[in-house]
Structure prediction request, 94 residues.
Amino acid sequence: MKKKASGDNTVILSDKYLSESGVQGGKIVAEKLSLVSFIIGMPLLTIGIYLLLNMLFGLGFPTNNATILGVLLILTIGSLMTLGGYTIYKSKMT
Prediction:
């Protein structure tokens, strides 16, 4: 429970305050992680949906096996990152 202050620097001398600072650090990391997930996930999801629609409606997009797997991979990664970012943000807010 002791704190030793020297200017703006605070030295934590108790396990209770150390665990509280760890929780606060985790919240900061979660905030940045959810933001990065949205920033990366939304364009990948948009590109994946666009490519999937081009493949399904035959707008000139080649449909070999590697392209189909690439489109599904981009779509899956984008949707999972977007869902993960939303879940982290939602759980952080409660």
User: Anything to note?
Assistant: The chain is about 75% helix and 10% strand. The chain has one domain: 3-93.
